[in-house]
Amino acid sequence: MHICNLDSLHRAARTEEEEIPLIDKKTEIDTPAIKIVAGQDGTLAFLSGRVDMDSSPALRDQLLAVVQAANPGIVSVDLSAVTHFDSSGIATLIDALRAARSSKTQLTLRGLHGGLLRVFELTGILSLFNGNTEVSQPGYKAI
């Protein structure tokens, strides 16, 4: 059995001439983003990355603007590329749903998957959207 002394490894790493930059723990995949695509059948708001208390305010503002601009119409929120979703994300969707209902816009969810789907089922959010949701099946991408 070979035992490695971490202190000696750290000292050896510091004596190297070439510096290796630290890797940011936040990967590009987790960077929150919203892409809006307007079409004849309605508007698609494609969310990706982490939807949390840091990103929710900006996403909320953008979603509300889309819902209010789509009057009357359909706005679909695609969550298939969301990597993390916390309670502030849920509040953001509920705010968007309220705005949609007051402006006679239909708001639907698409791409619910895995843990995200379980959260939406357990919190009862699926029922708020009156069943207007599409669930991603394992191995399939939401359309």
* CATH fourth-tier homologous superfamily: STAS domain
Helix count equals: 5
Q: Describe the largest sheet.
A: 5 strands, mixed
* Alpha carbon gyration radius: 21 Å
CATH architecture: 2-Layer Sandwich
**Mean pLDDT, nearest integer?**
77
The class by helix and strand makeup works out as alpha/beta
Count of discrete structural domains: 1
Low-confidence parts: 1-25, 137-143
How far apart the termini lie comes to 53 Å
Text of the CATH class: Alpha Beta
SSE series: HEEHEHEHHE
Rough shape? globular
Extended strand count? 5
CATH topology: Transcription Regulator spoIIAA
Strand content: 25-35%
Strand order of the largest sheet: 1-2-3-4-5
**Helicity, in percent?**
25-40%
Molecular structure report:
Helix 2 runs parallel beside helix 3. This protein has one domain (28-135): STAS domain (Transcription Regulator spoIIAA). The protein starts with 5 loop residues before the first helix and ends in an 8-residue tail after the last strand. A five-stranded mixed sheet has the order 1-2-3-4-5. It is globular and about 30 Å long. It has five helices and five strands. The chain has 143 residues and is an alpha/beta fold.
Summarize the structure.
It contains five helices and five strands; from the N terminus they run αββαβαβααβ. 24% of the residues are buried.
